[in-house]
Amino acid sequence: MSAPALPYKLIATDLDGTLLRHDETVSGRTRTALAAATAAGAAHIVVTGRSVPWTRHILDALDYRGLAVCGQGAQVYHAGEHRLLTSVTLDRQLAGLALSKIEAETGPLYLAASRDGLEGEVMVGPGYRIQEGPLPTIMIDEPGELWTAPLNKVYIQHPTLDDDSLARAAREVAGDLVGVMVSGHGIVELLPLGLTKATGLSLAARRLGLKAADTLAFGDMPNDIAMFAWSARGVAMGNAHDELKAVADEVTVSNEEDGIAVVLERLYLS
């Protein structure tokens, strides 16, 4: 008697607000559900907006050894081998032009930027608010220092505009030069034009011999919209941004309530 067909052969999970709880841990229930799905034959890929240096310590703590899509789709990283497989960089000249156009519309911005590579630091300019934690950052005094090495992305903040308003203004004036993404609270990013999580996920899936029709995706922010569009099914967390919930096939409970486990238990353990 043949084994029952897997509901989905690939499970793609965002990290912050999705797989991770507020304290950057994964619950025992979610670990068990993922283990059951992978034991049944499904593959699990982490897909995060964080660049590799800001992701690696979490993957190591989870003993995660598979492929991870990092940097909003720019990087495909082999966690078990600590090896960067692919990387896409931002055209710094286009990014500089985009910033000029955005600031002409909104006024001065606070800036940070993520350098390319396994050890790429995040350069943080005056006024930019960063989350506290054990993440590699270098504080700089002169904005010109942001542009001295290849970058994956530029982060922008505004003194008064909220994330959605800033992203909307940036897209209106510079959306033909760079991608603009809201990937977390206080995190608006400028990316290579056309780059999304779906870009990196499709490359990672191809390495595993899998495709969009095989994929179940979980996320919580607007930067997961393209991943949902690419995947066969997209599940938004209960704590997700309204823009993502609007395009999701299903809304589960929050990351703090084991939303991923609730879905996986139904699909793989029932």
Structure characterization notes:
The mean pLDDT is 94. By secondary structure, the chain is α/β, with parallel strands linked by helices. The strands form two sheets. It has an eight-stranded mixed beta sheet, sandwiched between helices. The chain has a six-stranded mixed beta sheet with strand order 8-7-6-9-11-10. β6 (110-115) and β7 form a beta hairpin. It has helices at 15-19, 28-39, 52-61, 92-106, 163-174, 197-207, 225-230, 242-247, 259-268, and strands at residues 10-13, 43-47, 67-70, 75-78, 83-87, 110-115, 122-124, 137-139, 151-157, 178-184, 187-192, 215-219, 233-236, 250-251. It is 32% helix and 24% strand.
List keywords for this structure.
single chain; 270 residues; alpha/beta; eight-stranded mixed β-sheet; six-stranded mixed β-sheet; 9 helices; 32% helix; globular
Shape: globular
Strand content: 15-25%
Structural class: alpha/beta
Estimated radius of gyration: 18 Å
Quaternary arrangement of the chains shown?
single chain
* Major sheet details: 8 strands, mixed
- What is the arithmetic mean of pLDDT? 94
Number of helices: 9
- Distance between the amino and carboxyl termini: 19 Å
Helix content estimate: 25-40%
What is the total tally of β strands?
Answer: 14
Q: How are the strands ordered across the major sheet?
A: 5-4-3-2-1-12-13-14
Order of helices and strands: EHHEHEEEHEEEEHEEHEHEHEH
Low-confidence stretches: none
SSE layout and pairings?
Layout: E1 10-13, H1 15-19, H2 28-39, E2 43-47, H3 52-61, E3 67-70, E4 75-78, E5 83-87, H4 92-106, E6 110-115, E7 122-124, E8 137-139, E9 151-157, H5 163-174, E10 178-184, E11 187-192, H6 197-207, E12 215-219, H7 225-230, E13 233-236, H8 242-247, E14 250-251, H9 259-268
Parallel strand pairs: 1-2, 1-12, 2-3, 7-8, 12-13, 13-14
Antiparallel strand pairs: 3-4, 4-5, 6-7, 6-9, 9-11, 10-11
Helix pairs in contact: 2-9, 4-5
